[in-house]
Write a structure and sequence with these properties.
The chain has 68 residues and is mostly helical. It is elongated.
């Protein structure tokens, strides 16, 4: 018997019985996917600037203006 087992302690990551991959969730709700355009919706100015830079890198001339 090694020292850890005689003290009743476990190695890091070792669980008492059961499957190692079972987890008990601490949160009351499941994960909410914010969507692929989440950051674009947060900062529209930066999203537009990023898209303009990308189009210019592809060889396009770009002019944008706000929609009425």
């Amino acid at each position: 018997m090694d020292a850890a087992s005689s003290r009743g302690t476990r190695a890091r990551g070792e669980q008492e019985g059961g499957d190692e991959h079972e987890h008990e969730y601490e949160y009351e709700h499941e994960y909410d996917d914010l969507g692929p355009d989440h950051f674009d919706r947060l900062d529209k100015t930066e999203a537009a600037a990023r898209l303009v830079r990308h189009l210019k890198q592809l060889g396009y001339e770009v002019e944008i203006k706000h929609a009425a």
